[in-house]
């Protein structure tokens, strides 16, 4: 027994450290940021699993959108327009309550009334006619007073904001507090203290029934998952906009804190009349997101003013006035979207309060989790130290499924947010630690694989292969792959004029760039270097379902890399280079081939030969890259231009060849391809004159294009010597 303990001593020590860290985090004695972040992620997953598709009609968003701005002018609007909006909502549509997700911090001077009053007190103070006219016009021009009059005696909630940064001056008038210092005295210190606020004009705030803040809680990852339902400013406590709206909509029932006194006093919620609203000890509520943006009905503000919205959409609804217009949009990162309208955050909270369905994480859940981990730890150690790897793995998976299912059941049935990250990390952490010894045996086998394949395959692919060495073999096999050939044009002429040492450096420069693109950027296997030519392939030995796409992307990237290299070559006094690339896809033989003296991991077959022929044809057609038909068919997202039908040396069957123009949809390149396709159609239909006119039009745009000139030359020959009746438009190349 003692010998077994000594054998497992390192595992027991590391496991104990892991268990203590997790337990300390759950108990609150130590904050582990990774666990907190993982808990947030798992919470987001639970939210997304339970999203609802149908919008909630009980809360409607009156949107200050582009349509409204176009009709009523840029924001901010004159307050008399807002007064009309409030009148329309309550008098025409008879909404239940309305809240503004904006703050009115400054007077509305757009009517010119301040300037008229200045004249009345200055140059025109003795002008009786002017004074009389001003007295008559003031009620119409004092738009703030008109807006205040519209707010009075109506279930309207204004919005304000607050912040915790020191040194910022406050402005505006706060609404009446929701709770006073005496009610919150036992837990006041747990509510974060605001250092400043930005509120509405006193005239407007005093006219409104209530006010609430619209400041969300932003977590460490930038996401909004919580909103403080209470904000402490001085000794008073002010509600969130959503809470104030529900209170007004319910007829202003009393609000009181729910304080737990078990194990010390702590806030666990709020009681609004008969509604219980769950919060954490800091007065924050988790936002019960229904789904992505658009989970609530939106109506345009101008349509409300003009009574164009159906009455049943707004009647007896809770209304939020907010904006989605560009430049005004208040966007938030949330668990259900990275550009989520801030006004919908409040709408989700309102819906959750109406349903009394806010997610909650009561203190007893943390105690239950701590006890669960205490019981789980010895069970896991026993399984991992005494059972076989297979049994231990199955047991850990079963535990994860069981505990994860229980966690999801608590969420869906009771909206209990049971933290699962600590449980997940404990099971996975102990599993990884105690399986580490087995790694050394697996590592030995992987090193053998590296020794075997490392002679032929780039290190990046060997590393991936080592993750599952049983899947790979050096034996020859037939597979669907993509192969690429490159060749430097006129290299013989270039090399004749260079000293040997400079030629070697020159070749190393461009071969390095081509190899970097193939290996590091697109993870191809470089088969061999043949002078200035490079041969590479994709799809073996590592399976790559996107081998054709990777080969085409690499071909175009090589052209970009060479274009970037040429200025550096010229700076050294060397000539620029251009590279032709051929790519083909098809069945080919791949494996360790050669003799008893030397073996190499390579590919061969008809598809490989065709790729080499395609590379040779690039110079003839004046294009940089040519691909075969199978490659084109395997890469539907690439924009191609069909070049020709050709019959190459060594093949009886004609093939269609294509030039890739863009790796993503590009309307301009697609038009180039379509215009040349029309020229090809006319050419193959023997409509020589029409085909030449199409080519001349193309040459107007691209006068130096070798391809268009080539087909004009062919047409000239065919017009002089018409082809036989069975001519099929295929061009025959005799050379290699």
From TrEMBL:
Recorded hits in InterPro entries, A to Z, give: A/G_cyclase, Adenylyl/Guanylyl_Cyclase_3/4, CHASE2, Nucleotide_cyclase
Q: Which GO terms describe its molecular function?
A: adenylate cyclase activity
* Organism taxonomic ancestry: Bacteria, Pseudomonadati, Pseudomonadota, Betaproteobacteria, Neisseriales
Q: Which Gene3D superfamilies match?
A: Nucleotide cyclase (3.30.70.1230)
Residues of the Guanylate cyclase domain? 482-615
So which domain of life are we looking at? Answer: Bacteria
Keywords attached to this Swiss-Prot or TrEMBL record, sorted alphabetically, are: Membrane, Transmembrane, Transmembrane helix
Q: What are the TM regions of this chain, as residue ranges?
A: 364-384, 391-412, 418-440
Q: Which GO terms describe its biological process?
A: cyclic nucleotide biosynthetic process; intracellular signal transduction
What's the protein called, per UniProt? Adenylate cyclase
């Amino acid at each position: 027994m003692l010998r077994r303990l000594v054998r497992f001593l390192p595992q027991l020590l590391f496991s104990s450290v892991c268990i203590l860290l997790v337990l300390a985090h759950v108990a609150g004695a130590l904050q582990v940021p990774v666990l907190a972040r993982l808990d947030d992620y798992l919470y987001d997953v639970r939210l997304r699993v339970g999203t609802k598709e149908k919008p909630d009609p009980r809360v409607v968003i009156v949107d200050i959108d582009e349509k409204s701005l176009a009709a009523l002018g840029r924001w901010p609007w004159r307050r008399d327009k807002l007064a009309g909006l409030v009148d329309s909502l309550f008098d025409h549509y008879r909404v239940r309550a309305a809240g503004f997700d904006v703050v009115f911090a400054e007077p509305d001077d757009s009517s010119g009334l301040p300037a008229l009053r200045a004249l009345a007190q200055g140059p025109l103070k003795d002008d009786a006619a002017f004074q009389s006219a001003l007295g008559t016009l003031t009620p119409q021009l004092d738009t703030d007073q008109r807006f205040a009059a519209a707010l009075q005696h109506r279930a309207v909630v204004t919005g304000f904001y607050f912040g915790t940064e020191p040194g910022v001056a406050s402005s505006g008038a706060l609404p009446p507090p929701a709770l006073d210092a005496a009610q919150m005295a036992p837990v006041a210190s747990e509510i974060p203290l605001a250092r400043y606020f930005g509120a509405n004009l006193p005239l407007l705030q005093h006219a409104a029934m209530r006010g609430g803040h619209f400041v969300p809680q932003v977590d460490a990852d930038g996401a909004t998952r919580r909103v403080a339902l209470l904000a402490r400013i001085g000794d008073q406590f002010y509600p969130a906009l959503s809470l104030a709206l529900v209170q007004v909509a319910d007829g202003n029932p009393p609000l009181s804190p729910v304080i737990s006194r078990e194990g010390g006093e702590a806030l666990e919620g709020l009681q609004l009349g008969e509604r219980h609203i769950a919060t954490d000890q800091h007065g924050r509520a988790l936002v019960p997101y229904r789904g992505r943006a658009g989970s609530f009905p939106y109506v345009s503000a101008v349509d409300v003013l003009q009574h164009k919205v159906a009455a049943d959409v707004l009647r007896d609804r809770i209304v939020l006035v907010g904006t989605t217009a560009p430049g005004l949009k208040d966007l938030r990162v949330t668990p259900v979207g990275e550009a989520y309208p801030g006004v919908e955050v409040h709408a989700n909270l309102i819906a959750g309060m109406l349903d009394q369905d806010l997610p909650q994480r009561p203190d007893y859940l943390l105690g239950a989790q701590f006890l669960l981990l205490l019981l789980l730890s010895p069970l896991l150690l026993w399984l991992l130290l005494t059972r076989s790897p297979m049994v231990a793995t199955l047991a850990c998976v079963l535990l994860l499924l069981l505990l994860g299912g229980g966690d999801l059941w608590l969420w869906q049935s009771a909206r209990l947010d049971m933290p699962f990250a600590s449980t997940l990390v404990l099971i996975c952490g102990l599993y990884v630690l105690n399986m580490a010894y087995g790694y050394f045996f697996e590592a030995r086998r992987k090193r053998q694989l590296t020794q075997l394949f490392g002679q032929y395959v780039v290190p990046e692919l060997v590393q991936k292969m080592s993750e599952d060495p049983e899947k790979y073999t050096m034996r020859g096999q037939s597979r669907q792959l993509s192969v690429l050939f490159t060749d430097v044009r006129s290299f013989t002429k270039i090399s004749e004029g260079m000293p040997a040492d400079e030629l070697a450096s020159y070749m190393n420069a461009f071969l390095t760039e081509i190899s970097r693109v193939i290996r590091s950027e697109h993870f191809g296997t470089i088969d061999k270097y043949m002078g200035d030519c490079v041969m590479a392939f994709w799809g073996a030995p590592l399976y790559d379902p996107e081998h054709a796409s990777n080969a085409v992307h690499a071909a175009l990237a090589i052209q970009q890399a060479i274009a970037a290299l040429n200025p550096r070559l010229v700076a050294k006094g060397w000539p620029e280079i251009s590279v032709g690339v051929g790519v083909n896809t098809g069945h080919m033989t791949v494996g360790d081939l050669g003799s008893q003296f030397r073996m190499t991991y390579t590919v061969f077959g008809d598809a490989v030969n065709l790729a080499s022929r395609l590379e040779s044809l690039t110079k003839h057609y004046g294009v940089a890259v040519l691909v075969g038909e199978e490659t084109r068919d395997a890469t539907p997202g690439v924009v191609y231009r069909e070049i020709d039908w050709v019959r190459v040396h060594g093949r009886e069957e004609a093939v269609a060849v294509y030039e890739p123009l863009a790796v993503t949809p590009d309307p301009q390149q697609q038009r180039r391809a379509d215009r040349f396709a029309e020229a090809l159609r006319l050419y193959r239909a023997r409509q020589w004159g029409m085909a030449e006119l199409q080519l001349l039009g193309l040459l107007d745009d691209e006068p130096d294009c070798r391809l268009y000139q080539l087909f004009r030359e062919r047409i000239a020959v065919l017009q002089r010597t018409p082809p036989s009746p069975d001519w099929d438009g295929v061009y025959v190349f005799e050379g290699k």
